[in-house]
Each structure stands twice: as C-alpha cells, then as structure tokens.
Amino acid sequence: MKRTLLGLAPLTLALATLSIGCNDDDPGTDGAGTETGDGDGDPGDGDGDPGDGDGDPGDGDGEPGDGDGDPTEGPDSDGDGVGDDNDNCPDDPNPNQRDFDGNGVGNVCDEHVFSTIGGTLNSTAVADAGVGMCQIPIEIMVIGGEIRVQLDDEAALAGFDIVSLQVADILDKNCNLGLAQANVSIKDFVIANNGDPFPVSVAHTPAAHDAGSIAGDSNMPHPVLSTGILEAAVGNDPPMPSDLMLDGTLPVFTANISDAGAAGTLAWADAQYVLAMDQFMVEDPFPITIDFQLRGLVGSITLAP
Asked: How confident is the model over 177-218, as pLDDT tens digits?
C-alpha cells in the first residue's frame, strides 16, 4: 500500500505543474465533470472574450454582432450607426431616430401631408391702365390643396411645401379704368409651389418636437405660380377668357402645428406685399395696356391630414 501511494506522487505533481503552466485555463473538467474552463463556473475564462458564459453568443462587450441587442449590429445600409433591423429610416441617415408623430417611421423619411385645407385670405387686385386705376378687394377662399411638412433628425428645422392651394372662383369684380369699365372673373384658380421641394422652413427645437408642436415664422417667402382662367369684359363686350399665369411668391407666414401633426394653421399678415405682377393687353373697344398687381395677403388657413 505504501509503495502504491508513492508511485502515484510523480503523476500528481506532473498534473499540478501542467495546470500552473497553462494559467488555470485547462479545457478539462474540475473533477465534478461540469466545467470546461478555469474553475469559475463559466465555460470560458471570464475575461470578456468569446464564450464567457454571460448568456450572449458573443463576447458581451457591447460591440456590433455579439447578439446582445445592441442597435448597431447587423447591416447598416445608410451608415448612420443604427442597424437596419432597428432603424426607423433604414435608407436615410438619422442617428437620433427622431419620430415626430410616433408612427414608427423616422422624421427624415416621413412627410406629414395635409390635404384638408380651408380658410380665407384677403388680397387686393390693382389694375393701372395709365388713364385710370382701380383697386379691387379679393377674397381668396381656399377650398382644398396639399401642404407637406418635413422634419429633420436634429429637431432644428421643419420644412414646409405649399404644394397647391385650390381657390374658389372669384367672380364679377368691377374695375373702372377711366376710359373703360371692366368686369373681371378668375376661374379654376390654383396657387402652386414654383420652387424646389420644401423651399421654406421654420426653426424648431427638441423641446417643441417632444411636445408635438411646430410654431414660428417661415424663413423666407414661398415661391408660387398662380394659374387660372381670367375672364375680362370691357364695356358691353362679352367676356374674353385668357390663361392666367402669375409667377410670384407668398409672403412669410406663421405656422402653428399641434398634436404631432394632427392639426395646424398657416397665417399671413402682410397687407402691402406684392404677390405677383403682370401686364395685360385689351384690344377692344380700343387698345389698352393694363399693369396688374396682386397685393397683400392677410388671413389664415387651417390644416388637417
């Protein structure tokens, strides 16, 4: 018995030496048949390297691809640092992932469309024939159209695009030009964007964004093209229809959007602003050149999706 014990001593010493030389990271067991690593109960060495037994299929360091739910892992088509599976705008960079209306689509790829639009804007048509001038009050009754709003990912700006405003017919406006009395109507009147998409913007803040509101003045006039059919009758002659095409701008407006885009208003308050100007020729009963201006815009329109 004594010889048997001494005979095992060299083998025991060799195993102990082998364990020390390998930094206690023996891939064997701990004697109970339950561990494959360093004796701490994890299948790895616990240093944060792959296979550390923390429940992640990777190394648990929070870097992309370790399976710990980090939003940056996986493909990132737009390169904004947020993986496609977690990106609310996977094709447009938006690292802040801001979503104004909370519909799961980020600001930079989610335009807010208002197509229920109405209200009255007051303006003045000014016609000058050289020998006489008239000023005709005009009520621009907006009965439809489309306005779009686009917010950015930083909550710094809200872009506005007055795509179109449909206006009720303006009928039988009388103008005394000195040598002639004119009766003027405008039909099929549409005011439409005549610039780039979202040509004007309103300053925004993170606090207003989080509160679901946009409020402030546009940064510049909005380019528009006003079209329609102009019917002008001079004296007792029948109306002479002609295409109306006025290239101009709308003055700076005040926007107020509430409830994360559920409702809003645009308001104008500039009675002297020249929206558009043109020159018309009337041949009968005698040639007359008429200089025309559409001047001033006062009032507001309401917006709803």
From this structure: 776 777 889 999 999 999 999 999 999 999 999 999 999 999
Tokens of 235: 């004296």
Residue 14's H or E segment, with its range, is helix 2-21
Kindly report each contact of residues 281-290 with a partner whose C-beta sits within 8 Å and lies 24 or more positions away, as own/partner. 282/180, 282/182, 282/232, 282/234, 282/240, 284/234, 284/237, 285/180, 285/234, 285/235, 285/237, 286/179, 286/180, 288/129, 288/177, 288/179, 288/180, 288/234, 289/129, 289/130, 290/127, 290/128, 290/129, 290/177
**202, HSE (Cβ side, Cα atoms, 13 Å):** 23
Q: Please give the Cα distance from 295 to 249 (Å, whole number).
A: 11
Distance CA(250)–CA(274), nearest Å, equals 8
